[in-house]
Write a structure and sequence with these properties.
0% strand
Length: 229
């Protein structure tokens, strides 16, 4: 039922391990160019996803309402605290970028249509082709991220396990509730969040991207209220 998620966890761990080993051999200039390339690629992916929206008002409403809700719930601060707790458990020094790696990788790996649709398909039918493709992509992304951000990226495998596993286990309920229009607007909202991650990677703007995560739940609600299918 969660075979695809377990495969995804394995590729994140493998990619992160390789990235940390590679990063130790890369000079600072090479690490910077890796992050710049990853940031530019992330911006492109986010833009393509965001442009899938069929209703710009629903997209803006999802992001704004979701962001306000996330600020009230202090989601970003919660992820930071979790990352800090994991850093202490792993025994990494305080001056490292462990927490940044954990939060950034968790968002990249868990926001997107492949996460939602792949987890639902895995939970309902046991087929995990979508998640297998995502696992390969996440493996390469974790390699690049961990080369600069370190072991925090590997700990994002825990987020993948909990988030995707929950979606797979709740697949029978979700498939009755989620329509194609809802998936489209959730994808677009996730795309804007990924754009925010790109800005973070490029060090252009420090956006608390995690606080926008409730927008993924607000989007289908707004679609339902609008009567779209």
């Amino acid at each position: 039922m969660i075979t695809g998620t377990l495969l995804n966890v394995a590729t994140v761990l493998a990619g992160s391990t390789g990235g940390v080993a590679l990063g130790a051999r890369l000079p600072e200039r090479a690490q910077r160019i890796v992050m710049d390339g990853l940031g530019l690629g992330t911006l492109l992916i986010g833009a393509k996803m965001a442009l899938q929206t069929q209703n710009i008002l629903i997209l803006l409403g999802s992001i704004l309402l979701g962001g306000l809700l996330g600020e009230m719930l202090r989601i970003h601060q919660g992820l930071d605290r979790l990352g800090e707790a994991l850093r202490k458990q792993v025994g990494v020094g305080q001056g490292s970028r462990f927490t940044e790696g954990f939060v950034t990788a968790s968002l990249i790996f868990c926001v997107g249509p492949m996460t939602v649709m792949g987890s639902i398909e895995d939970g309902l039918t046991g087929r995990y082709q979508i998640l297998a493709a995502k696992a390969v992509l996440d493996g390469f992304a974790s390699l690049a991220l961990a080369a600069t951000l370190g072991w925090g990226v590997a700990c994002a495998a825990l987020t993948v396990l909990l988030f995707q596993g929950s979606l797979s286990l709740g697949a029978s309920l979700l498939t009755r509730l989620i329509t194609p229009a809802m998936v489209t607007e959730m994808t677009a909202a996730g795309g804007l969040m990924i754009l925010g991650i790109g800005l973070l990677l490029l060090e252009l703007r420090q956006i608390r991207v995690a606080n926008f995560l409730p927008g993924l739940a607000v989007a289908p609600l707004l679609v339902a209220l609008a009567g779209l299918r």
